[in-house]
Structures are given as C-alpha cells and as structure tokens.
Design a protein that fits this description.
Blueprint: H1 2-22, H2 25-37, H3 45-74, H4 79-101, H5 111-134
C-alpha cells in the first residue's frame, strides 16, 4: 500500500512541476503576482518576485524529495540508498525541468534553479533520513 501511495504522490508532484514549467513567462509572472498580492508587506515587487520564484522552486522540490525518499524507503531500500536515490531522482528531474522550460515562451533554463531545486530535495531527504534513523 505504501509503495503505491508514495509512488503516486511522487508522480503527481512531478506532473505538477511539469505543468508549472509549461507556463509561458507571462503566465508564470501572473502566478507569482497572485502570490505577491497575498503578501502585502513586500514593497519592491520585482525583487520580491525573484524570491517568491526561488522559494517556489525550493518548496516544490522539498516536497518531491520527501515523497521520493518515502517511495524508495517503501521499496525496502536502506535509508542511505533511499536518500541517495531520492537526491539523484530530484537532481535529474530538475535538470530535465529546466530543459523543458527552454521550450516555453518567455522562459529560459537556469543552472541556479537546478541548484535550488536539488537543495530543497536534499534538505527534505536528509531530514527524513535523520528522522527514520532516530526511530
């Protein structure tokens, strides 16, 4: 049961990332603008949009790393292998995601985004790994 649940969750998050990457630059800016409208304490919209976008990258890959770690753990991999496999999966998906963005109008691939994505996955996988070792 856990295998199906975490595999489905991992795939669902990957689909969500794919859909966000399919947005044009204009659509992506509207999404960021909507989030900024919910946070009235930002004075400089341009710099705030940069941070919102980077936080979105980090957050979605944090969730992907968490679900990927759980998925690999459910398939009876050791915790260290689950950690490594989840980081590798998220890194490769981040690379393919940035490549995919290059086909969306007004978007371009950014190596820095791959780094942020991988760090989000690394931190969630690391925390999951520490939590499971304590259990």
């Amino acid at each position: 049961m856990k295998k199906k649940l975490y595999t489905s969750l991992t795939i669902a998050i990957m689909i969500l990332i794919f859909l966000f990457s399919s947005q044009s630059g204009e659509e992506s800016s509207k999404t960021s603008g909507f989030i900024l409208s919910l946070l009235p304490f930002f004075n400089n919209i341009e710099s705030a949009e940069f941070y919102i976008r980077k936080l979105a990258h980090f957050s979605i890959y944090f969730l992907l790393g968490l679900s990927a770690f759980q998925m690999f753990s459910a398939y009876n991999h050791s915790k260290s292998k689950a950690f490594l496999f989840s980081i590798l999966l998220c890194f490769l998906y981040a690379c393919s995601d940035e490549f995919h963005q290059s086909f969306s109008s007004g978007r371009s691939p950014q190596v820095f985004d791959v780094f942020i994505d991988t760090m989000g996955a690394f931190i969630s996988s690391f925390l999951s790994c520490c939590f499971f070792y304590k259990k």
